[in-house]
Amino acid sequence: MKIAIDGPAGAGKSTVAKILAKRLGFTYIDTGAMYRALTLKALQNKVDLNNEKELASLVHDTDITFVYHDGEQRVFCDGIDVSEAIRAPQVNEAVSRVASFPAVRKIMVEKQQRLAEKKSVVMDGRDIGECVLPDADYKFFITASVEERARRRKKELDDKGYDVDLQDLKENIIKRDKADASREVGALKILDDSIVIDTTCMRIEDVIEELLKIIGEK
Prior knowledge:
Elements: E1 2-6, H1 13-24, E2 27-30, H2 31-44, H3 52-60, E3 64-69, E4 72-77, E5 80-81, H4 89-99, H5 102-115, E6 121-125, H6 128-132, E7 138-143, H7 146-159, H8 166-181, E8 195-198, H9 204-217
Parallel strand pairs: 1-6, 1-7, 2-6, 7-8
Antiparallel strand pairs: 3-4, 4-5
């Protein structure tokens, strides 16, 4: 079975996807983390973030894997655990640009599709239902208000020790939404067969129960 979960930045889709996969006994694939890992590597290697050819070459030579350790999924880039580093503000600001290039997305989608072969998966991102898993059994679109998404992101960053301004986060989210929706390839959008869940006023557990109910009914 394949479950696709799409949605804008900070809507809680990764948290939902992770818990849902655990409840169902499926493999969780965080595609956003893959683009973040690539962005982190590009920043560390001082790759021009406006150069599509250089970024495409970089993703060809990058190995991104997911490893479970003590019940938690960790993200590894070229054998190095980058689970914390990819959540840094500078990665947040640059990842949408890196992910916007068609050549980068083409290679990354192929990597993601290979990860989903022969396994039941829950995969989240921006274009999963349309580009990565067009044959998904379920396509969910998880969203929330800009204000709520900024509040959640601030709490996440505060917990990790980053000092960030709430208004700056709101502006960054609005900018990312615009960039993600206007991509030439893999644009963020609600599909005709998407099941939309607005989580603004919902607890995570309530969202999970809603998704499980829909999956159970179908």
